[in-house]
Design brief:
The chain is of the alpha+beta class. About 30% of the residues lie in helices and about 25% in strands. The chain has a single domain, classed as 4-Layer Sandwich (Glutamine Phosphoribosylpyrophosphate, subunit 1, domain 1). It has an eight-stranded mixed β-sheet with strand order 4-3-2-6-5-1-11-12. A five-stranded mixed β-sheet has the order 7-8-9-10-13. Residues about 155-160 have low confidence and may be disordered. Bound molecules: glycine. Glycine (GLY) binds near residues 182, 184, 215 and 218.
Amino acid sequence: MNPDIQIIASANGAIGIDAVWENLAHGIRALDAVEAAARVVEDNVDDHSVGTGGLPNLDGIVELDASIMDGDNRAAGAVAALRGYRHPISVARAVLERLPHVLIVGDGAARFAQEIGAEAGELLTEEAEKIWSEGLTAAPGGLAGTILERAKALTTDPERAVGTVNFLARDLNGSLASAVSTSGWAWKWPGRAGDSPIPGAGNYCDSRFGSAACTGYGELALRTSTARTIVNRLAEGASPLEAGRSALLDLASLDEPTENMIMHVVVLSKDGEHAALSTQRGALYAWRDGNSKSTEVLERTYVSLEGGH
Ligand code: GLY
């Protein structure tokens, strides 16, 4: 097995790595691998942060964001606030391949999904609806202002509380690709787009240098272009660990309460060196390379933002 092939993902992506690993080992493109891996997680109804089973917006409607990027030419495709389609990552892939655009949103994204024959489906499961309605009932105050509190109350697992799935892959040719898919923040404002569908914020990939993707409180990544910042650092010669650390430390100057500073990143260099970091202790990620016997779920490097920067 070629040790240079590799996939790194958020922890909830382990099932996606397992599903695509043999194909990646047999030579499929990184771009095909990350799309196929994301589709597996989009179909996991037990994952309330992605695809079917994702938690809905303030109105009780599931809205999905996704993006995919080809590191060989930095072609990107993305959808935001897409309703009613099972695989936003594949709609994003079709945007990349079939439209002269990068990002389409809302009704326009749904219309495009219909035109390309994307699979429609009911995204709201009974369990997700129950969590949503209990969260509304428990809302301590006004609706919009308490999104963070409710998401945090939902679960103590930081990957799920502000969950998303992302994948970075390197194929046998040394090409890189990245994919991110999410139902975004539970109880989010209808039409809200997070960092996941925004190249440079939640997802960035350049086969010359490396790739990076985020999970967590997307507005932080939107404000600081986290994924692109990491790849810029890789281009300057930083290691994945140094690049990720510097992008997370940059969040400390945003003047946000410490409890809002939820950000996890995965980083993969063009040479196949990887890192995974988090502003929360104990956060996990999933990883496999050509030397591994199976997908490993490992702890991310913790980066403390206390003390400011
Ligand atoms: N990072 C995912 C989101 O904020 O929607």
